[in-house]
Amino acid sequence: MERPAVRPQDRRRRTPRPRYAVLLVLLLVVVAALVVALPGDDQAGRDEAADCAPVRAERVRPDRKITGTFARYGDDGSRTDDWTGGDGTRSVRLPDGRTLWLFADTFLDRVHPGGRRVPQPAWVRNSAVVTSPAGEPRSTLTGDLPAADGRPTALFPGTATPDGREVWRWPVDAVVEPRRPGSGERVVRVLLWQREAAGAPWLFGSPRATEVATLSLPGLRLENLREVHRPPPSSPPGDRVLWGTSAVRDGGWTYVFGADERGTEGGGPSRTYVARAPRGSLDDPAAWRYRTGAGWSPDGTAARPMDVTTRRPDAAEGGAARGAGSAVTNTYTVTRHGGTWLLFSMDAGGPDGRPSQTVVSYWSCTPHGPWHGPDAVTVPGLPPGGRQAGATAYNVQAHGDPDGRGLLLSYDVNVLGDPSAVHVDAARYRPRFLRVGLDPEDGDRPDRPG
């Protein structure tokens, strides 16, 4: 049927039919929701970094208060199911002011006066310690069900391969975020490294996958575990990237940093990577985007290493890394100071390709680099008698500036050549802490990447 002609003056007076008006309103609602839900792009990130300037770590001093707090908690013999030492130290501040401290391999049980552990102490692959808003340890979190012998089990339980080899989880960094984008309910999301028993040189496990655990708030109950990235099983173990050595919130994104493990096979420093997920979506693998060098891709195999090879003229001063390339281990840490991003690592740039005992730092104006450095920060101290026992410092981690006294760094201590040494003195397998002042360097700001 032919539609009747409409005169110009009639067309001006007409209003949309009701159904078209409804569709228009719905379309506007959807667009508005997308604008709210989706984080800003890289341009917004560059605008936020307008105050980026070179930053160096200065005025490094031991924080004996926090080191002593954990030592006293570990030495307290009133319970047999709480923490007496661990490594892999990370932390996340909870909304009510408490702090959740995450640990990988953990000793429990009791410590005798003088620091000696009881014979055959309880041991788990991971645990957590909850501290009060004032920083006092209040409880140790392990698995809900004990083992068959009545001993504690890991907070994040392990499994086994079909041929019976152990598969375990080491917690790395964590963030508090909405349960889902836009939700008013918050949860803790913990990044986990899944590893499996293997032969030399993988004495600390072959890298297998990255997972995310969800803990409820305020109860910190383990709700679920979800795999977010698995490298191709056929790839060489040293080339497999595990994610979560550091996680930093910026605007509507959580930036997750990762690394391969070439250093384990003697291949020198690790290559470093970055991905991101919208806040509220860290446990959703479909939401992750991986930095390719030119942009962001949903394909994890498209990730490309960050540029951390820029060298300063004074990079070798004070025992910092030597030679070309980065000086970063696979457990580096990233934090922010104003508009400047900072990366700390034990120096992995020695001529033998092994980490040294020097902490180095890099800085960048974006989370994906380029990273400038390295600058030597400090050679961290060991517990009394540690050097004679063969103890080593490793896994430097940033914990922010919780009380306004400067950036808090932790590092772990272990005696790799003599496992019995950590039972003779429990202090040889506990984190120690540093306070670091951060000073902008002299000179002009760098140009920010386009």
Can you describe this structure?
This is DUF4185 domain-containing protein. It comes from Streptomyces hazeniae. The protein is mostly beta strands. The protein has one domain: Tachylectin-2, Chain A. The strands form six sheets. It has a five-stranded antiparallel β-sheet with strand order 9-10-11-12-13, with no helix packed on it. The chain has a five-stranded antiparallel β-sheet with strand order 14-15-16-17-18, with no helix packed on it. A hairpin with a 4-residue loop joins strand 17 and strand 18. The termini are far apart. 44% of the residues are buried. The N terminus and C terminus are likely disordered.
Question: How is this structure best summarized?
Answer:
The chain has 450 residues and is mainly β.
Count of domains: 1
Strand content: 25-35%
CATH topology title: Tachylectin-2, Chain A
Write down the Rg. 25 Å
Mean pLDDT: 85
CATH class: Mainly Beta
Number of helices: 6
